[in-house]
Design goal:
By secondary structure, the protein is mainly beta. About 5% of the residues lie in helices and about 45% in strands. A five-stranded mixed beta barrel has the order 2-3-4-6-5. Strands 10-11-12-14-13 form a five-stranded mixed beta barrel. Strands 17-18-19-21-20 form a five-stranded mixed beta barrel. The radius of gyration is 29 Å and the shape is elongated. The protein starts with 8 loop residues before the first helix and ends with a strand.
Amino acid sequence: MKKFSVIFFVLVLALFCASCGKTTGGSSDGGETDTGDTVDTGDTANTGDTSDTSDTSDTSDTSDTGDTSDTGDTSDTGDTSDTGDTVDPNVNCENGDDTISKIQKGEVTEETEVTTECIVTGIYYTEDEDHKKTAIKGLYVSEIIKQAEPYTGIYVFIKDTADVDDYKVGNKLEVRGIYKEHYENSQIEASVIKKLGSCPLPKPAEIADPATIATPYELAGEEYSPTANHGADAEKYEGVLVKVKNVEITNSDLGYGAFEVTGKLAINKDLFYYPGSRSEGVKIESLTGILTYSFDAFQLDPRSIDDFGFKIVETTISAIQKEEIERGTTVKINESVVTAIAYKQDSSTHENTAIKGLYISEIIPQAEPYTGIYVFIKGTADVDAYAVGDKLEIVGIAEEYYDTTQISPTVTDDIKKLGTADLPAPAEIDGPSKISTPYAQNGEEWEPTTNHGADAEKYESVLVKVNDVTVTNNNLGHGTFEVTGNLAISKDLYYYPGDRSIGVEFDSISGILIYSYSAFQLAPRSGSDIAATAGN
């Protein structure tokens, strides 16, 4: 935070003299770390987006949307994934000194040596190319108070880094170092860090209007860049643990791993990369983190998945598919059964290598309209992690991805196995044209029209069956062929190796009705889903 104060120069000088050599008291039950010289500064931002947020596979809808489905409001505490030792009753955790506030209010001259007792609220790690934490490059600390307030947080730069497990959120520290401004970001370049035990974190400062702490971005060419229109309270909360409530995603990709929520508030990934869905409209009940200043912008930096609070709505697949549930809502399906699995495959051998999604159904005797849905698995799962017939409980974001409805869990823990269940019998479709998308020839290629069958939407992702059909087009492209009623037979779940000659008859074909590349297609799951007429 940039500070200019000529008027109070004399007062500042007096404070400087009074503070020379000052150290704050307190017992030391931990080690004392000498962080070396304080000449070298460091920016507290990590540039570049280190994650892949899109799935380019050719499936009904196996694209990467992520998910935001952790439960409840967990943001009223610190980072519960990387906490310090159990709070020591022998450590003084009452209100401490106000050195940080004085720095942030401009009452301390830059290049002054300061000493403060504080508590760690966030940790800035270095990571390797596999996103594994390798060292600590800095700490966000707060004054020892019960609830965060303006000016009470600051960044502590650690020269030459520290071991990855040297500090944890909740550690009480004594920090001595030089106050500096680094690219308009206030920080203490630590020369000595002494552990004093562990204390409860202050509760986050609740921000009523996210716009008051935000730096809006605007599109400049093909990239988003921060404007200079910082929120009125942004400087006050620089380095402070804050919380915003009832926001939704308004821009899924600001670049470099950041996205935007209500009030033009950028959500950064320097302390934690959010693996869930970033689709516009996703609702977040509460969002906690450190307000950082990096690359000319104030941004909120969550510290773990626990900083994302979602209101979970228990519902059914049919309620989602009938649009009774608003898109962007975190939903919970208490019971479902896996009807099909979408695999990633080796491009040369076509061998299944991982699971990228599941088709699930309500547990009913026979499939009905609206009773199936696709579950996207971000980052894939092991090839044998799930099987057809698995009974599952699922928490995730209900959303549309390229006009396909899906549930996007955040992590595999949001998909719980409950045992096994019987699959519903396929819904019998008495006229294939009711669920098909006809194709039309465009030059040398066949392309889907927009004349979808009247019942196609109802049966999206549902297990269905058509009877007594004949091949009418043996090559629609991309491994797909067509049968009676202009029904495309997809190879996304299984490639049929048998005869596809025009006129070949089938007693029945079963599978999942998928929506892929603007077309409804029937996707058999295995050879047993295709019953060729005897004598073909």
